[in-house]
Amino acid sequence: MNSLSHGFLFLCGLSWLLCEVCVSASAGFWTPVWLYLAGFTVMFTIMGCLPVSEKTINLAGPIFTILIGVGIGIYGIEAFGGSLLGALLRVIGAGVLIFLALISLSTRDKASAH
Question: Which DSSP string corresponds to the chain?
Answer without folding.
Answer: --SHHHHHHHHHHHHHHHHHHHHHHHTT--HHHHHHHHHHHHHHIIIIIS---HHHHHHHHHHHHHHHHHHHHHHHHHGGGT-HHHHHHHHHHHHHHHHHHHHHHHTGGGGGG-
